[in-house]
Amino acid sequence: MSGREHFLAISGGVGGAKLALGLARVLAADQLTVVANTADDFEHLGLHIAPDLDTVMYTLAGINNSQQGWGLEGESWQMLEALQVLGGETWFRLGDRDLATHLYRSERLREGESLSAVTAELCRQLGIGQRLLPMTDDPVRTVVHTDQGELPFQHYFVREQCRPAVSDFHFQGIEQARPQRELLELLAGETLAAIIICPSNPFVSVDPVLGLPGLKQAIMDSGAPVIAVSPIVGGIAIKGPAAKMMAELGLPVTAAAVARHYTGLVNSFVLDEGDATLAPEIEDLGMNVELAPTIMKTLADREQLARRVIELAKV
Question: Which CATH architecture has domain 6-62+129-312?
Fold first, then answer.
């Protein structure tokens, strides 16, 4: 790879975090940077909550709740139970241990630190050697257009359990937001072997990152191949509401429709072996197609997929 030995992973929450962990397991710590979506961050109970950032962070630290995919292992809920007695808002489940992260982050942000600096502090304390970056230090918030009106993303996703029908999205504040500084420096450098779009929701996890002013062009100018892993297998989203959103937006619920969404940016598309019949359609979009097992149930699955993606960078 002639000096290009660093990998950049673009991740949303649970699905992206699984592949990020696989990459972290098979690469040296200084070979991996993960940039996480922060457009679903929000203020709740006076705290700055960063769901995707924390899911990736907890996963890389090996302390995530592996059964539910988000939150911390061994969590307790006494604060939430006490809040419910008081009549407070409990629709967003903040665990007792998880609460420490939000308290720390919120206090440091009030002291004037950037989200990037606070994330680096948290990663250091949790023993994470890889670099984890928020997509921006500026506020960007996903708003979901639904048949019940416009909803902030967490209200749609958690409070309403994705029940409202989706018609569109917009990312409030994205026009004024600047991509994270270290992210731009990495893209402008000479070390990137590949940029990996993890199997995350293309509309609400990846699009906010790619939609930051100048970022898509910086990716294209980097000279590194862009590899996307499908979050849709057999017409089903492995995690989250991507399939439901696609159907309501009038799109085919297929991996090929995801590939089409990335046309012009992605060089190689990783397609689950069960969707092999879609390969010609995706190749017609100008992408190289790699067939691989993409459903990551075990740590071995995560590592295997990570190795396949890394090999694609050499093609």
Answer: 3-Layer(aba) Sandwich (3.40)
